[in-house]
Design brief:
The protein has 362 residues and is α/β, with parallel strands linked by helices. The protein has helices at residues 8-14, 27-43, 61-67, 90-103, 121-124, 127-135, 149-159, 167-181, 185-198, 206-212, 221-229, 233-245, 250-272, 277-283, 288-297, 303-320, 332-350, and strands spanning 2-4, 19-23, 46-53, 77-83, 110-116, 137-140, 162-164, 202-204. It has three domains: 2-140, 3-Layer(aba) Sandwich (Rossmann fold); 146-212, Helicase, Ruva Protein, domain 3 (Orthogonal Bundle), CATH 1.10.8; 221-350, Zinc Finger, Delta Prime, domain 3.
Amino acid sequence: MQVAANQLEAQLQRGLKSLYTLHGDEPLLVQEAADTIRAAARAQGYTERTSHTVAGAHFDWSEVLAAGGSLSLFAERQIVEIRIPSGKPGKDGSVALQQLAEASQGNDSTLTLVMLPRLDKMTKSGAWFGALESFGVTVQVDPVERNALPQWIAQRLAAQGQRVAAGEEGQRTLQFFADRVEGNLLAAHQEIQKLALLHPAGELTFEQVEGAVLNVARYDVFKLSEAVLAGQAARVQRMLDGLRAEGEAEVLVHYALAEDIRALKRVKDAVAQGRPLPMALREQRIWGLKERLFERVLPRLTETALANLLHAAHQVDGIVKGLKQPDWPADGWQALHRLAMQLCNHCAVQAGVHAKTAGVRK
């Protein structure tokens, strides 16, 4: 049975199951979901807890299988946790997980909690994951996307009795907060808790938030790609500056930008040859948020624009590898800024938003 992360508490109130599986890449949210399950289990007499981390291909699953039937003298019920950081249990693990899932039926003395990273579609179609889903509750813990981050912050502040001002001033405060903590949800949680220590319950001013919240944002090239395709010029520049400060490799940033341009061209060509857009996107393995961004941008992105972007990507490829190109900055990061903004401006125009290139390094 699949349950959304925000519905987990409601499911636990309806009745505790003997098997739960959490999968997702956001440590804070996975930990909070696990804590919610543990608290419900403790309230129902699960007083003992053992933990097993699957590391390497030669992990001994017999210990895990035996754990379910080995209560101590002082415990009537127990929680058995299985962490699989790689998300790949292997052949023996696949068999063991299916056995554990089947054994969980009618077993009210052991609650099994399996924790996994984010899984791709192929992994979720495997027999072992199917067994976990069929015999227990699976919870996909999704990250908080950038556009949802201000509201997430507001909800967390409300939970500790604090809020920002109403209207535009409050939105400005939340956007500032989100810019400071983007990509680092655990640090965002800590900054929210800090505000509870520094200021009493009630309304927080922009100045109070500005003075308290540290710049703990963390960026990755995949989120940069989404920001470029969304036409978010200011955010793109901020992310590029952040990636440079964090020591990210120029070639990796270039690869992400160039691969998006190549994918746009491949999908555009496929559609021109008669392929339906959804099919062309699937064939290029474009999923989720990026799929929606492609759908919005592609219909009005011209062949000429794509050809120019491909040529620009080729030139920047040489620059980040030490070659000079006429009419382009010699510095790799400056060239990446220009390439990113060229693509960003095309995407912003398609969205009806005119990205401003003022301040882009020439």
